[in-house]
Amino acid sequence: MPTTCQACQRPIDDNVMACPHCGYRVCHTPSLRRADRQAVTGLTLGVASIFLPVPGLDILMAIAGTWLGIKTMNHPHITRHKTALAALWVGVMALCVNVFFWLVVLAPVLFT
Ligand SMILES: [Zn+2]
Question: What is the pLDDT of residue 91?
Fold first, then answer.
């Protein structure tokens, strides 16, 4: 479905930041909201995974959070750059914390 300019109602490309016909700034396209939402979701997943005491699932959530951060960080429509960056780093950190935690917890069980 093509995006239409809110000011002049003419069809515009989904990747432009301003309407080429009238210069109206396009700031509320659905994909912009989606990118921002994914960045927030990524950050939430990363933070939640640190506190989730379920081995495997917490690591998956950390990976998903990191992936969403990477994916949204360079998105042309993202306005929450810091959130995307935070999602990336919290995800990486959560991954390390979770892997380390489960190694410490499971090592005595696995290696004795
Ligand atoms: Zn326009």
Answer: 96
Ligand 1 center–CA 23 separation, angstroms: 6
Answer whether residue 50 is part of any domain.
Answer: yes
**CA 28 to centroid of ligand 1, rounded, Å:** 13
3 in a domain, yes or no? no
Which domain covers residue 81, as residue numbers? 30-110
Contact, 22 vs 31, CB < 8 A? no
**What is the C-alpha to C-alpha distance for residues 80 and 71, in angstroms, rounded to an integer?**
13
In order along the chain (112 residues), what is the average pLDDT of each group of 10 residues? 78 80 72 81 95 89 96 83 94 94 84 75
Distances (CA, A) of 98 to 1, 21, 42: 41, 51, 16
How many A from CA of 78 to the centre of ligand 1? 21
What is the pLDDT, as a whole number, of residue 62? 96
